[in-house]
Design brief:
Order of helices and strands: HEHEHEHEEHEHEHEHEHEHHH
Distance between the termini: 39 Å
Largest sheet: 6 strands, parallel
Number of strands: 10
Mean pLDDT: 85
Radius of gyration: 22 Å
Low-confidence stretches: 321-326
Shape: globular
Strand order of the largest sheet: 7-6-5-8-9-10
Helix content: 40-55%
Amino acid sequence: FPWKPLTRFSSALALGLLWCFVRLAQRKTIVVVSAATPQLMAAWLVARLSRAKFVPCLMDPPSVELATDTGVKRLARRLDRRLAEALLAKGDAVIAVTGPLAGKFVPNRPAMVFEGTGPGLTDTKPADRHEPRFVCAYAGALGDAYGLPLLLDAYRLLDPSRHALWIFGKGDGEEAVRAAARECEHIQFYGFLTAGLDERLRSADLLLMVRPSQGSDSEFVFPSKILYSMALGVPTAVTRLKAIPEEYFEQLYTLDDADAASLAESLEAIRTLPSEERQTRADRMRAFVTERKSSSATGAALWGFLEGLALGTARSGSPSGTAMRR
């Protein structure tokens, strides 16, 4: 018996009804920070009973099927997804991590794009470095979905006397990374660091995010690693994911991931830029995150959006005030 969905629904409904009675005389907006069907159902019912605005938050598409799902589980996910999509479509507005995500599941409603907030990093000195080559660093999950095979192939094409790649992380692709490091002396694997990662990344020349731009989820996933890299104040290069708002590409370098040769050419082109030019862009990136993606700036924008929704004046946009791409 599916106790977990039932208990989630019951607890969310009970808390929602209690909130409804406490705030009965005020303008009401119910924000549900979940795309799980039990919470969505409970929040929608409470919103209808109390005549409140129903605003779901979307960080990912609901009920994504996994390669390991059996036939029965796959069918259950599909049914759950259909129900979640029907509930999301009833939203009076939406807060989503990307514009396309909002447009697909809560169409034709006011939407606020909220990619996240810049991490509050302390200023630490770069780690000591005895590497004269142009160092790119990748930190994150290791696997095909994150573009690691293409990145390794690109480095096999680059001049080992001019380029070096540092990789930090863990995942299913760890053995492939170890094999590449044994094969190519300019590829170095440091494993998963629990301490000192910021210092190592700050000593690199360029930070990389190589998630495939043509992936099935490229318009729905905003890698939070982008905000982290920008906050470090190190030049950062990314593939052109559809989910990344245009305002970010004014600060970031872009990578062509059509194939390994194209990616290698992109990295070589960035290497040949004057270091002063790269650092100027890095400083601009960090100011962008600090000033426009801070928790205070984002919180104020979200509050203004919800207040506008209650007054009937809400407009779609992002916390930094830019137009939303849907």
